[in-house]
Amino acid sequence: MKRANDEMRTEYKRADFVSLERGKFHKEAAEGTAVALLDPAIAKAFPTSKAVNEALLGLLALTEQTVRITGRAGRTKSKRAAV
After folding, report:
1. Rounded CA separation 67/69 (Å)
2. Domain ranges (residues) in the chain
């Protein structure tokens, strides 16, 4: 059920919603990609989707290399606390 115009909260102004676009990321969501909101500082450092993806793929590759170097699978299990 839609709210009537007179029921809109007073802190909202109709002029604030002029530039909104309905279904802006519908195509991407339908393709199974994720949409994430970035902090302004991060968006400035990584201005395009390609830049963000390259940085994250690099981080994943580094993580995989680190796991292999440290031998994570060879660690012993932690002991349970006595009950």
Report:
1. 6
2. 38-72
